[in-house]
């Protein structure tokens, strides 16, 4: 009995060492003198992988910065807090977060700040009390203006245009549409009237039918703006299925992976959304500025490297720039990313 | 059948005591494995990361598992008596929502904890009534109430968050309850302890005493080993089961108060998925899912192993998915090792 128990313990011990092995293999490199943690909502998301690539690009450009790209297994606030706690424990210099919950991350953000760690958010904000700066990819006026400019370029400023939105209750959709109408007031769009605004409720089938309805109701319709990823892909499909390529063009906010085929077929000339590589790059550049002790009060200017400068607004909000345009020349490349 | 009926035996059967080694051995084995694992985790983490063996870092790490660990104590007793409560995380959500509304109405910290515990208790009573009163299987009942409680929270809150709490309440969840005290001797100090971790330790001692040192504890083991035999031996099976569901609700409500204070915010997805993390703690702790076997010490050790493994791996920036895979492998391995040892004949079968 004695020997068997000893043997058992030995086997258990061997098992324990084997199970502890993964921790041994990944010994962290500590060559860089500044460490920035990029903590996103969840891993295995190619959008965030692209952001991380941008962050690494910025780190390489600046030199002396190590990017720690990590996330929790589940996209919940509690798990994300545990990940941030582990970064605080490692005494990183800066933390960039895409928050799973704006409010629940405030205490942990404050704790990091108390320990001398700079905290900023991007993509999805932490409430102002829990971070210094939040970098938005774009702003409402820029998003609205960009979409009108894209369809104007495609149509040569001539022809009837309609809007295919998501739901009439969605605040972001409505504020973008307001911003479009603001841009539309400019004289160069005089021969490009807005004839209708319809709602596809962010459902593929309803958006598709609304698009068909638009074409029937307005025989002279030349262009459609859809500021929603679901609206633009369903609208583009309706153009292809209805044999309307070359007659009606769609633009708006879409994902390269979903829009690639429609761009190549000619249903969509160009569309926009923010570029995640640039987003990660600009965030890291701003964090580098913060680490160098730059002030982030309202009105302060922070560098985004080759993307220029941004001005910190109210509540530490900063804007990266106008949405990034995708067309035949670059859509295939980005379709691989997101 | 025509076979002649054998005459009843003259003397009654002698019922031998069960060989003491049986259960003892299982317990010994399990806890020994867990202690080795805990030691290995500590040693490896200390070697790999210079930040691991730091009292403040370790104290911070306890924040992230203490609330789950508190619920795991109740879950251990439920699983021990062949029941389960999968609605615990949903109870946390419902109780946290109650706390959120109560805080907006101006309640103080004590009252907020009472609200959380009260809602938890009500949910526990509801589960207990359905299981013992209506005689429904616990897994079915609590899968139902899991959706019910969580769904209720989602319907009421929508995408809104409750973010207004009194500062004294937030301090209970966010700062150390016992502050770091140094004595001048470098190895002798009072470590910083969060309230949630302190409550877990106190409850663990309490649960350990009840389960292993009282008649009630023996009755729970009896129910877990054979509920029908337990009933015929005069053990109030239903009453004890009902009580355990109440305890499970109360501790979930308590955990909800601690978690809400820590986050300073609650949404309808609060604590989502916790029920399986908690069941993992209990199973890794050596509580048999078939009932009748387990110890509080094992559960406490498992809580530490899981907490330190997770913390150590995130200190080394190992992605969350890898941590999940590793914990899954750990669970299967720890459960399988004793069985494999038995199969290989390294241990003579008892008796």
UniProtKB/TrEMBL annotation, chain A:
Localization (cell): Periplasm
Gene Ontology terms, MF aspect: carbohydrate binding
Main location: periplasm
GO CC term, one of those recorded: outer membrane-bounded periplasmic space
One GO biological process term: rhamnose transmembrane transport
Domain Periplasmic binding protein: 36-295
One Pfam family per UniProt: Peripla_BP_4
Family designation: Belongs to the bacterial solute-binding protein 2 family.
Protein name according to UniProt: Rhamnose ABC transporter substrate-binding protein
Organism: Pseudaminobacter soli (ex Zhang et al. 2022)
Gene (UniProt): rhaS
């Amino acid at each position: 009995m004695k020997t068997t128990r000893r043997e058992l313990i030995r086997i258990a011990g061997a098992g324990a060492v084997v199970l502890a092995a993964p921790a041994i293999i990944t010994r962290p490199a500590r060559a860089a003198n500044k460490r920035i943690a990029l903590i996103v909502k969840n891993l295995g998301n190619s959008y965030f992988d692209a952001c991380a690539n941008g962050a690494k690009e910025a780190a390489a450009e600046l030199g002396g910065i190590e990017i720690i790209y990590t996330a929790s297994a589940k996209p919940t606030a509690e798990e994300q807090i545990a990940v941030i706690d582990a970064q605080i424990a490692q005494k990183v210099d800066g933390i960039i977060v895409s928050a799973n919950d704006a409010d629940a991350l405030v205490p942990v953000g404050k704790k990091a700040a108390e320990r001398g760690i700079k905290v900023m958010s991007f993509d999805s904000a932490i409430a102002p009390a829990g971070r210094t700066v939040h970098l938005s990819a774009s702003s409402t006026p820029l998003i609205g203006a960009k979409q009108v400019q894209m369809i104007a370029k495609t149509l040569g400023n001539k022809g009837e245009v309609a809007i295919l939105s998501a739901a009439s209750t969605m605040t972001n959709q409505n504020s973008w549409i307001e911003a479009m109408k603001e841009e539309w007031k400019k004289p160069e769009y005089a021969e490009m009237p807005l004839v209708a605004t319809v709602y596809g409720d962010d459902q593929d089938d309803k958006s598709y039918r609304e698009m068909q309805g638009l074409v029937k109701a307005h025989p002279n319709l030349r262009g459609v703006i859809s500021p929603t990823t679901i609206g633009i892909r369903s609208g583009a499909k309706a153009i292809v299925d209805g044999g309307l390529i070359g007659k009606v063009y769609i633009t708006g906010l879409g994902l390269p992976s979903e829009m690639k085929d429609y761009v190549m077929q000619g249903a969509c000339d160009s569309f926009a959304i923010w570029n995640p590589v640039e987003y990660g790059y600009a965030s890291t550049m701003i964090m580098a500025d913060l680490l160098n002790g730059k002030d982030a009060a309202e009105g302060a200017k922070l560098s985004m490297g080759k993307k220029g400068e941004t001005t910190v607004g109210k509540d530490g909000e900063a804007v990266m720039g106008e949405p990034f345009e995708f067309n035949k020349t670059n859509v295939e490349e980005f379709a691989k990313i997101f | 059948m025509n076979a002649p009926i054998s005459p009843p035996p003259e003397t009654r059967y002698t019922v031998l005591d069960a060989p003491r080694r049986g259960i003892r051995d299982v317990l010994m084995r399990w806890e020994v494995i867990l202690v080795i694992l805990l030691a290995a985790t500590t040693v490896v983490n200390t070697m790999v990361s210079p930040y691991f063996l730091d009292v403040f870092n370790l104290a911070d790490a306890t924040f992230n598992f203490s609330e789950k660990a508190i619920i795991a104590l109740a879950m251990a007793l439920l699983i021990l008596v062949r029941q389960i409560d999968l609605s615990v995380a949903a109870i946390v959500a419902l109780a946290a929502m109650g706390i959120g509304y109560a805080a907006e109405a101006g309640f103080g910290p004590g009252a907020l904890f009472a609200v959380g515990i009260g809602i938890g208790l009500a949910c526990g009573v509801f589960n207990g009534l359905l299981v013992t009163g209506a005689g429904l299987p616990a897994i079915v009942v609590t899968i139902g109430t899991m959706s019910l409680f969580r769904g209720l929270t989602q319907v009421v809150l929508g995408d809104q968050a409750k973010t207004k709490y009194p500062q004294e309440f937030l301090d209970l969840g966010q700062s150390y309850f016992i502050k770091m005290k140094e004595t001048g001797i470098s190895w002798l100090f009072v470590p910083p302890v969060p309230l949630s971790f302190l409550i877990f330790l106190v409850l663990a001692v309490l649960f350990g005493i009840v389960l292993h040192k009282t008649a009630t504890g023996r009755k729970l083991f009896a129910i877990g080993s054979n509920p029908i035999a337990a009933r015929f031996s005069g053990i109030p099976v239903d009453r004890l089961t009902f009580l355990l569901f109440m305890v499970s609700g109360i501790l979930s409500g308590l955990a909800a108060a601690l978690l809400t204070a820590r986050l300073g915010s609650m949404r309808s997805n609060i604590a989502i998925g916790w029920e399986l993390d908690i069941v993992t703690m209990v199973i890794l702790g050596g509580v048999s899912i078939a009932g009748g076997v387990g110890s509080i010490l094992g559960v406490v050790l498992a809580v530490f192993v899981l907490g330190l493994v997770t913390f150590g791996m995130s200190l080394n920036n190992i992605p969350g998915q890898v941590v999940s895979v590793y914990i899954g492998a750990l669970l299967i391995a720890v459960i399988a090792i004793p069985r494999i040892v038995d199969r290989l004949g390294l241990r003579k079968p008892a008796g």
